[in-house]
Amino acid sequence: MFSDYEMMGNQKYLRIIASDNEHRNQSDSDMISNKEMQGFLRLNFTSSNGVDVYKYDVTDYDRLDECLRDFYSIEEMAEVIIKMIKAVQKLEGSGLSKDRIIMSKYSVYVRKADMDVRFIYLPVENIFGDADYLFRMMMIDILENNPFSDARLDKLICYLKQSRVVDYSVIVKMLEAVMNTGSAYVDISVITSDETVVEIVQKKERRFRLFKVGRKVKSQRRTRSDKKITGTRIGDMGFIKIPA
Questions:
Q1: Which of 60, 52, 68 is nearest to 17 (CA)?
Q2: CB of 22 within 8 A of CB of 127?
Q3: 76: number of Cβ within 10 Å
Q4: pLDDT, tens digit, for every residue of 30-87?
Q5: Alpha carbon 19 to its chain's center
Q6: According to the model, what pLDDT value does residue 181 have?
Q7: Structure confidence at residue 139 (pLDDT)
Q8: Within 13 A of 16's CA, how many CA atoms are on the CB side?
Q9: Which positions of the chain have pLDDT values less than 50?
Q10: DSSP per residue over 142-168, as a string?
Q11: What is the enclosing helix (H) or strand (E) of 234?
Q12: How many CA atoms lie within 13 A of 111 on its CB side?
């Protein structure tokens, strides 16, 4: 199996081309082809000369791994994970197998304009493994490699790592608690690693956007004294607490 992108006018498509030994599940393919499914990219299936091609419209979407560094706030990241969970939960009641979801941050797509999240459902037999395990590992990866710091995220990571069976409703409640917070924590060592001044601007609904101003500074101490970062420093841990 391999994949590439195809441009048709202003439309961008992800093409996944199956190998000879990767067999299509016809009932799943017929069920989802050219149909709108909440939380999943629209599939167009074609087969020519024995080659199966699965094409997904990714116009206006970016891969999740590319979006992680651009999240404006901890709430935004939590919102994306909640939408991922709800998409998987909804699929479970549809007769489709979640084991055919590609559980990878490189195969989840996000439309930044409204934070719409879409998985790829690939109707191919027995190629991915245990979806619950892969989904758990993906969430741990996302949470461990984000620019925010919050004790509740640390608790969620511990839950995902230590629980024998993960309850998605518990994860959603923990993330909703994060979304309802009045503060965001940003690790300035991540933001200012290139010694570029960073300005934090409050948005509506307790969201925060990070702007790289572009002027070089000599140190993080100079960055803070320039007041380009607003908020209160917390000890010597390198975090800035931004008021709501």
A1: 52
A2: yes
A3: 21
A4: 889 988 898 999 999 998 888 899 999 999 999 999 888 777 788 888 999 999 999 9
A5: 28
A6: 60
A7: 95
A8: 19
A9: 182-244
A10: HHHT-SB--HHHHHHHHHHHH-SS--H
A11: strand 232-234
A12: 13
